[in-house]
Amino acid sequence: MRDNNFIIENNAKHLWHPMGAPSDSLNNPPKVITSADGSRISDIDGHTTVDAVGGLWCVNLGYSNEAVKKAISEQLNHLPYYSGFAGTTNPAAIEASYMVQEMFKADGMERVFFTSGGSDSVETCLRLSRQYHRLRGEPTRTKFISLKKGYHGTHFGGASVNGNNRFRIAYEPLLPGCFHLPSPYTYRNPFNEIDSQKLALNIAQAFEDEIAFQDKNTIAAFIMEPIQGAGGVIVPDPSFMGLMQEICERTGILMISDEVITGFGRTGSWSGARHWNVKPDMMSMAKGITSGYFPVGAALMGEKVADVFENSTSPEAGIFHGYTYSAHPVGAAAVCACLSETQRINTKNNAEIRGKQLYNGILKLKKKFDVIGDVRGGQGLMAAIEVVSDQKKKTAINMDAMKKLHQKTYEAGAMVRLGLNNILMSPPLVISEAEIDQILDALDYGFSSM
């Protein structure tokens, strides 16, 4: 590795970063993270903070899990790569598929298709949902419905069902036949409804209306996050996902639960769908599947979908879709170790306990600072703070103020993430009580500095 002077001199000069303007990186070079331990990260200047972002919603086990690192190292010595395309496989992939299916059997999942990450997993679910309907003799079912504020990755399919325009506008026209319903977002919604249960009913009715308008026989799938993550940790009413599932079942539309963030304990349950007592038809997964130690994702299929593919005699039943790194043996070994550790530590329990601590602490900050317009979370270890310049008008505060808040919070000991005028947090699921307190103290300092 080159010395620090070389790293600092070349920061942002050759590398374009996701989710940001190249000019901004050149003018404001990114923080260089050089090491990590447990729930803490250190930068090139030697400054150590609690990682309240968990890498990117993904480092559930923290940065020091020896079992996962050992599994990766040992697999590299045995078989660093071989294709997972039809005709060849590897022992790690077979074991990983068994473990994933077992973990989500309670959600009705029966089959696993490995990918390289969350965007791949969403793309896989969208494609296979169309193919499912073709195999059933309903080739007109090609459209998708999703929620505004939802985030489903960066491929053309995922971007098309995304509900945030900043991930869409520069790349339009996107996939045709994608339609969006209002988000279950009590702070801002077109119904001006602050009661979460009434809002859920309003959106369900909007879903019914959209299905009637489009014609149910043209719709392949409805996709949603059980809790919207990147859109601002929007927690729906407990009834919401079940309402949407009932409509899907009645109209023959597949339900895809996007569990890329909410899977593997983040919500305090092993899946977000299970948290709301819902069994979807398909699930897209990534992030916590390896705790970020290796790029792996998965698309999971329920019995209804699996039966159609496996019992079809159609020449169109072949899955002519996949990735070079699907069922990568090193990634699969990481999956096996990560799931073993996740269940051994029982991370969902700590996520629930520490999540309540974080949420309650932020509610106290809301009483102290007028710029905090809304606080969301309380369901597992994910939280958001919406920052406004005017409480009554709910006016979003400007980005310069948000960047200052971010920097001051970082200086005080916590790395948080900005999502427009939201502060987003998703710490490692192994985080301690004292480390949550440090995040809250850092936020207090950051808001006091505004």
What does the model show?
The chain has 450 residues and is α/β, with parallel strands linked by helices. The chain folds into two domains: 31-64 and 346-448, Aspartate Aminotransferase, domain 1, CATH 3.90.1150.10; 68-345, Aspartate Aminotransferase, domain 2 (3-Layer(aba) Sandwich). It has 15 helices and 16 strands. It has helices at 4-10, 22-27, 54-57, 66-78, 91-103, 118-135, 156-161, 196-214, 240-251, 272-275, 303-311, 329-345, 347-368, 399-411, 433-448; strands at 33-37, 40-43, 48-51, 109-115, 143-147, 178-181, 219-224, 254-258, 282-285, 297-302, 372-376, 383-390, 395-396, 414-415, 417-419, 422-425. Strands 4-10-9-8-7-5-6 form a seven-stranded mixed sheet, with helices on both faces. Strands 11, 12, 13, 15 and 16 form a five-stranded antiparallel sheet that branches. Helix 4 packs antiparallel against helix 12.
Quick structural overview:
With 450 residues, the chain is α/β, with parallel strands linked by helices. 40% of the residues lie in helices and 16% in strands. α9 links the parallel β7 (219-224) and β8 (254-258).
CATH topology of the largest domain: Aspartate Aminotransferase, domain 2
Task: Give the CA-CA distance, first to last residue.
Answer: 38 Å
Low-confidence stretches: none
Radius of gyration: 22 Å
Helix content: 25-40%
* CATH level-two architecture of the largest domain: 3-Layer(aba) Sandwich
Order the strands across the largest sheet as they lie in space.
4-10-9-8-7-5-6
Give the amount of beta strand, in percent: 15-25%
Note the total helix count: 15
The CATH superfamily title of the largest domain: Type I PLP-dependent aspartate aminotransferase-like (Major domain)
The total beta strand count reads 16
